[in-house]
Amino acid sequence: MQAGDATLLIDDGELEGARALLDELGVEYRTWRGSKFEPPIAIPAHVRILITTARLALALDTRRRPEHLRSTWLAYVQGEARTQRAALRRAGFDVLVPFDAHPVAARTLLLQALFLGQDQQAVPRFSVGSGVRYRVGWGRAREGVLVDLSMDGCRLMGWERARPGSRVRLSLPSPETGRPVRLTGRVVRSDLGAREGGQPGQYALGVRFQGLGTQAQLGLAELLRERAYGPAAWSPRSNPSPGEDVRAAGPSPRQERRTPRGVYERSVEAMCAGATRALLARDLSARGLRVEPTNRIDVRERLRLALYGCATGEPLLIDGHVERDDGDRGLLIHFDSIDDRTQERLAGMIASLPKIRRLADDSDVIAVEIRTHD
Length: 374
Known about the structure:
Distance between the termini: 73 Å
CATH superfamily of the largest domain: predicted glycosyltransferase like domains
Order of helices and strands: EHEEHEHEHEEEEEEHEEEEEEEHEE
Oligomer: single chain
Structural class: alpha+beta
CATH class of the largest domain: Mainly Beta
């Protein structure tokens, strides 16, 4: 696909995933062992794709020169350290790839680099690799992977086929406010996911946006700015959020939450910024509390909560913050550090509540186990 010396990979064995991708795509490439070089290292002018790690990129003091203007430099990074990312951008790196990026997103990035200058799309498309909640037609909510995104459309990787022409609604958290950015469009193509780096049983859906209002377009622009330098880190959990795929290996119809949640439909006192507000709770776990939708508190706002229901009759005082706004599903308040005594009392309270079981294959179905007493 490409001359062997036009793609250069510099590492000390950390980039086995990148090597596997290059081999899968049939790309010939050269490798340098980074530890053998003394800084500063000069990148040859004929190199069109440079792939290395943040550690080596900064330690070797690589600097981009005019002869590298048409090349693409990728650095694999660990974590979200802003200082490191800023230094890599100053050094001339175009894309920063998390080591734990979703495999499909990493594959998309490499393909974009390989075909730089040959892509005929008029609108820039950025690799994303984060989870997304979406609906096809009037069907139930589904969890999938947002592979890439542009102002015109996106590509999704999910577990169910959708017919071309089907209406699609997406919900993504805004990087600025945390509130959902709601996008609508139509499926323009549906293909087997395995052909595009997905797993057997997955489907790749191409979606073209339609009828976006001003707020949706502004939110979309924020999302694109956030992903301009590379995809998101991927960290699937047993309790998927609105921006998260359910599992890498496929849907499991009976998988449940690992963290027990109980029905907690009562009023909660929230003290914030010198004011006390009454919130209506929905459910409770050892990690946090979900409350009814409200505009009285904002995402990231810090709160002190008073939870009632302990056997002693005294309220539990717990500090937390508003982690995200899930629209009609309410706001999620995440508990901050809790001492052992409070954690013990909270566990006792949750044990006394009716349990919620949210099945992994259908996030809209909640089965409640009602306890009875003899």
